[in-house]
Amino acid sequence: MANWYTADLHFGHARIIEFCKRPYSSTEEMNAALIRNLQNCVGFDDDLWILGDFAFEQASDTQKFENWFHQPPRPKASDCGQSR
Q1: Which residues in the chain belong to E strands, given as ranges?
Q2: What does the alpha-carbon distance between residue 7 and residue 79 come to, in Å, rounded to a whole number?
Q3: Which residues pair with 78 in a beta bridge?
Q4: pLDDT digit string (tens) for 4-48?
Q5: Distance CA 32, CA 23 (A)
Q6: How far apart are CA 65 and CA 29, in angstroms?
Q7: Residue 27 contacts by C-beta under 8 Å, 6 or more apart in sequence?
Q8: In angstroms, rounded to a whole number, what is the distance separating the alpha carbons of residues 4 and 47?
Q9: Is residue 81 over pLDDT 60?
């Protein structure tokens, strides 16, 4: 079992690609890469702590992030901030 920590994922935040020079051409590509990278690193029995700015989208779009959030590796504890 390992503890993993991350912050400022900014799922769904199109402008973060430009602001932080992330190497993606779309939010869909970025979201998929973030999920894939987390699933490749964090084991099922590991603890994943998300320390803020999990997602940046309209309230009507949050269901897809909630679905991901409840898939393995599922964060066991989190402090999810929301930037607007």
Answers
A1: 3-6, 47-50, 77-78
A2: 9
A3: 50
A4: 998 898 988 889 999 999 999 999 899 889 988 988 888 888 888
A5: 13
A6: 14
A7: 11, 12, 13, 14, 17
A8: 6
A9: no
Structure tokens that stand for 10 in this block: 């900014």
The rounded distance, in Å, linking the Cα atoms of 13 and 56 is: 5
pLDDT tens-digit profile of 48-75?
888 888 887 665 566 776 776 666 655 5
Return the number of other C-beta atoms located less than 10 Å from residue 50's C-beta: 21
For residue 17, what pLDDT is reported? 95
For the chain, the distance separating the N- and C-terminal CA atoms, rounded to the nearest angstrom, is 34
Q: Which residue matches tokens 């930037």?
A: 83
Gap between the Cα atoms of 80 and 24, Å rounded: 23
